[in-house]
Amino acid sequence: MTLAGLTVGLVNHLAVVNLRLALLEGSEPQAAATAALDLVKRLLLEAGMGEQEAEVVLVSARQLVETVLEHL
Predict the structure, then answer these.
(1) Which of 5, 18, 21 is nearest to 57 (CA)?
(2) Residue 44: which of 67, 10, 18 has the closest Cα?
């Protein structure tokens, strides 16, 4: 697996874990999704990834979070 593939997989996992935590804390689903994705993006930027690269990596995480929300 490539470093890019590992990064996308990790970002997807972090987004869903953060979504679940926010939902367990009682957040509304859409607010929880936004907070989860914002946190992951902030982590990517703090790790030195550029804004455009972070947005590309977050595409699949957004899709995954939306899929999770659809099944609530």
Answers:
(1) 5
(2) 10
Angle at 56 between CA 62 and CA 22, to 5 degrees: 30
The pLDDT score that the predictor gives to residue 28 is 93
Q: pLDDT tens digit string along 37-69?
A: 999 999 999 999 999 999 998 999 999 999 999
Compute the distance between CA of residue 38 and CA of residue 10 in angstroms, rounded to an integer: 15
- Angle at CA 25, nearest 5°, toward 70 and 17? 55
Q: How far is CA 70 from CA 33, 41, 46, 62, 66, in A?
A: 11, 22, 30, 12, 6
pTM of the predicted structure, to 2 decimals = 0.86
